[in-house]
Amino acid sequence: MNFFNYVSSTLVPIKNIERELICPICKELFTHPLILPCQHSVCHKCVRELLLLNHEDSFDAGSECSLPGSPGPRSRVPSPSMERLDRLARSGAFGFGSMSSPGWRRGSVTPRITTFPCPGCQHDVDLGERGMSMLFRNFTLESIVERYRQAARAAVAIMCNMCKPPQQEATKSCMDCKASYCNECFKFHHPWGTPKAQHEYVGPTMNFRPKVLMCPEHEMEKVNMYCEVCRRPVCHLCKLGGSHANHKVTTMSSAYKILKEKLSKAIHYLISKEDQVKTQISHLEVLINETEEKGQLVERRTDENFERLFETLQERKFEMLRSIEQSRMRRLDQLRGQVDEYQGMLENSGLVGYAQEVLKETDQSCFVQTAKQLHTRIAKSTESLRTFHPVADPSFDEFVLDTSREETLLKELCFGGVPDPPIIDLSRSRVYNEGLVCWQLAEDTLATDHQVLEYRKLGVEQDEEEGGSRWRPTVPVYGPSTVVCDLEANSLYSFRVRSCRNSFYSPYSPEVTFHTPPAPVFGFLFNDKCGFSSERLTLSKLRDSVESAAGMAFLLAAERVQTGSYMGLDYIIGDTGISQGRHYWAFRVESHSYLVKVGVASDSKLLEWIHNPRDTSSPRYDHDSGHDSGSEDTCYDLSQPFTLLTVGMGKVFIPKASISSATAGNDHGNRVLPMPQRIGVYLDYEAGRVYFYDANTMRCLYERQVDCTGTMYPAFGLMGSGKVHLEEFIAAKRLSYM
């Protein structure tokens, strides 16, 4: 049984796939879904609402409804016909252009966005000036949603659109007339022997899609090819001179066969692993229950811990308030006693009045007996009057608490646990004599304070008591990347990183290793002046990437070309030359590139190339063309003022006379290698030698002697469609000096 028959025999009931038919924005069944460039689908109305800044001024509120008869309660008006939606989309009503619907004055301009994050993958989707008109309708998904709705409606039938009341149940739908008919009405409106009898009809449906998929960019053209770069159908005009001119395309039938086979194999694999999936689901359910139980247990313990903290604080609070109250009462008693004492000093008060009465005593013995003690009291009061001092201090400074330290300790309590370790991002990290190391933070709801990167050189012999090579930490990093300086050339380094939150450190990330190049980084940009062909080469604004395309002159001359190939290489060099030392640079060649030559060339050879260009009707014109022509073998030992390695169609072509041990021998399989993701070039000017590396693994692919009598430049030659990107670190190093 083949894949297709096996998959067909294990069909899943249509009612079980509802989760795949839900729009990620409105969370309802898809209504007229559109395919975004990232291949995710979103409702037509949802894309429109994302694009329009003013929802109240939308062209037709009725388009927000779903198709009639969809399951579930709905309180929306019927949607406009898809022909009208397509007509509005193609007229630019959803892009930057003016709105012509009610409420809009023709020609008026309203600011609106054309970039939004895809709800499925969060990548930015830029629709450009054409807006929604560049998006394909997902007719396949529409059909599946319609079948799901029919299965959900069950007993609700589709009625004939032509019957007079009472309407009969429809038995078929005409895809050309876009209407449903009962048997009698279909025969009446599609009489035998007329053109209508040739119309295509299907079972009763409410989803009428066009019979042929048209190109959204060229409205009158059918899509008949598939762009492998953009992963979308295109027409022949898109390939001839549109945005897909330099992209690799295949026929629609070939793409259909390949994708259908891949999808069938993937489905077959999933079905064959059903027992494994069920086991993993059972394991996940156990983990869910365990997580629920342990989470509740930790919540209870946390509540108990906080209750104990609250009780301790309440006890300390009660003791503090009691001490303050006792001190307050004692001080009040003392001050009130002092007040009573001073009250006696007044003329009409006790002590003064008593002394006046004693002065009236005439008996000397009695007077002396009483006056002595009285005089002591008055003298004491007089002294107290001269040196007035309250017996109690009204301030309570000794009871004022400084809780800043305790508050800091409480704030530093780590209630979120130890943070998860970050992961070093190999795709974005680049290590030369300086290293740019990037990482991805763990998907944690709590933010981290900072990260610490540590690195060490491997293969260093040290005393055993030192425990081997020591890790060297960087300063705290408040972001997802950092630069490490002063790395030794041609060395192996290991890196790891960890996060810190509230003084708690996460475990270290898995260690990753990088091999530094054999020389420091050489920074340069593409030269847009020396021999640059603006007709066939396109430079980016920063001059860090170059793309080749067939120029108009070549197309106009095509009618004179009957046989053979007479295309020439278009050369471009770096804007900085090398006259001494050892230097290394890296770049990336797009996988769809037809033919790209990369290497070095002297200033003398550049003048010859620019003033005496050669065609490439035969690959034998170059000593190191990379083709199996045999010419390079006879002249290999001659030291040339240039060396170029051939790259193209996802391959690297190693010349036969290469002395690299990795490619020794004359076997074709050894000479044609898969193209690395990144290619590195190392030039030793004094030694007169150039090396080509797989920049990811630092494996030498090819090396050769080169005549370095003049100034050497990084050189590139492109033929046909192709694109070269300089490494960001290479270009950034050059831009920093501009």
UniProtKB/TrEMBL annotation:
Gene Ontology MF terms: ubiquitin-protein transferase activity; zinc ion binding
One Pfam short name: SPRY
Record carries keyword Metal-binding: yes
Gene3D superfamilies linked: 1.20.5.170, 2.60.120.920, 4.10.830.40, Classic Zinc Finger (3.30.160.60), Immunoglobulins (2.60.40.10), Zinc/RING finger domain, C3HC4 (zinc finger) (3.30.40.10)
Domain COS, residue spans: 359-416
UniProt-annotated location(s): Cytoplasm, Cytoskeleton
CDD domains: Bbox1_TRIM36_C-I, Bbox2_TRIM36_C-I, FN3, RING-HC_TRIM36_C-I, SPRY_PRY_TRIM36
Span of domain Fibronectin type-III: 418-519
Domain B30.2/SPRY: 504-734
Residue span(s) of domain B box-type: 210-252
SUPFAM superfamilies: B-box zinc-binding domain (SSF57845), Concanavalin A-like lectins/glucanases (SSF49899), Fibronectin type III (SSF49265), RING/U-box (SSF57850)
A Gene Ontology cellular-component term: acrosomal vesicle
PROSITE patterns assigned to the protein according to its UniProt record, in alphabetical order: B302_SPRY, COS, FN3, ZF_BBOX, ZF_RING_1, ZF_RING_2
RING-type domain ranges (all copies): 23-65
Keywords, comma-separated and alphabetical: Coiled coil, Cytoplasm, Cytoskeleton, Metal-binding, Repeat, Ubl conjugation pathway, Zinc, Zinc-finger
Any single biological process term in GO: spindle organization
Similarity annotation: Belongs to the TRIM/RBCC family.
Protein known as: Tripartite motif containing 36
Gene for this chain: TRIM36
